[in-house]
Amino acid sequence: LFASGDRVSDAAYVDVQQQSALKSNPIGSDTDWREIGISIQPSSAAVSYSDDRALQPLGATVLQSVDLVSLGDSAAFVALSASVRFGATQGTPLAGLFVDWDVGESETVAWDDELGASVMAPVDSPGPYMALTTAPRAPTTHAPVPLGTPQNGFYTASANGVLARLEGFTDAEKGRLLALGGASASDGSASDWAQMVGVGPLQTGDTVVFVLAAGGTRDALRVALDSARAFVEQNRLPATAGRAAGRLEVLPPYPNPFDPLAGVGVSFPFLFERGSESVNARLEIYTIDGWLVHSESRALAPDQPLQPFSWSGVLESGEAAASGVYGFVLRVGNEAKTGKFVLLK
Fold first, then answer.
1. DSSP class of residue 317?
2. Which of 100, 109, 265, 336 is least surrounded by CB atoms within 10 angstroms?
3. Which residues, at least 6 apart from 25, have a Cβ–Cβ distance to it below 8 Å?
């Protein structure tokens, strides 16, 4: 997926059990992308394409290569390298990869700090373990995506677990997940889960490398991920990998306005291109008169998804903050951005 603002171009399929799903393309088109050229070798492939089939094209052209590497009988990885050039865009350019594994009857999905990847493990078998991440830089976001349940409004399942109706995985929802990410792990609300990772902000011509790794055991998965990162560094190193950390971008608070009495806090999503070292991030929230009402800090490790800051609207005294306009300052490293939002009870 490539996105800018609320516009997303992707290749998700459109028809499942004769129901419109995952795309809003015209009937007969299962992807926003049109192939320009392709070359296939035994263990690699290269393809170029444009998004001129999309309902709202980004004017994007992509050069993509795929390498498949087997590490014996118990581990393997795929390195998917994509270099994108955008046309005129409004918003922050992002790239993402959405994967539905379907290895077993049920599965769990969670970000693993130790492995530095989003890991899928089948519930009904001892393996294989699958992982999704980016290399060499960490994903901006990570989102476990539930399938087969009404959660997030994607799917509706019948009582016997058979998919009965698909409500659509809209471009707006894809863009939101790319920018905001999702929960840290799957839960018991669904047995079928997909994964999405995203990276950004992008500049035109940037290269992003997604890694899909497989291992018969967790140790084998670790070998596959380590080998994939070494392979990418030696053979598919993005031109942007040597850039210093920086380029903070703050996205609009969500929801805005927000009601602290409704039990839903306000999120402050942001994007920051990280280097190889941890950086500090801090959120400060002020009244319109300049009084500080909330602050929090965290360290951003180079190998973890970015999680938005959030505020419940509750003051340190335990009382709900008053309705009104508030300002915020988000600082990451040596950069800072400001914005406003509305609290409305």
1. T
2. 336
3. 14, 31, 32, 53, 54, 55
Unique residue bearing structure tokens 């596959």: 224
Q: Is 254 helix (H, G, I), strand (E, B) or coil?
A: strand
Q: What six digits make up the tokens of 94?
A: 């992002």
Burial of 43 (0-12, 13-18, 19+ CB in 10 A): exposed
Find tokens 């997030």 and name the residue: 152
pTM of the model: 0.79
**What residue ranges in 24-74 does DSSP mark as E strands?**
34-40, 44-50, 61-70
Structure-token pair, residue 66: 């795929």
- The single-letter DSSP state of residue 252 is P
Cα–chain-centroid distance for residue 341?
24
CB 150 within 8 A of CB 158: no
The helix or strand, by DSSP H or E, that contains position 246, with its residue range, turns out to be strand 246-250
Helix residue spans in the chain (DSSP H): 171-180, 218-235
* CB atoms inside a 10 Å sphere around CB 232: 22
Side-chain half-sphere of 325: how many Cα atoms within 13 Å? 5
Q: H or E segment at 95?
A: strand 93-100
Which residues make Cβ contacts (< 8 Å) with residue 269, sequence separation at least 6?
Answer: 179, 180, 250, 251, 254, 306, 308
pLDDT in tens, 306-329: 888 999 998 888 888 999 999 999
Angstrom distance (rounded) from CA 324 to CA 286: 11
For residues 26 and 11, the answer to whether their CB atoms sit within 8 Å is no
Tokens of 250: 């703050």
Helix (H) or strand (E) holding 76: strand 75-85
Helices (H) and strands (E) in the chain, counts: 2, 25
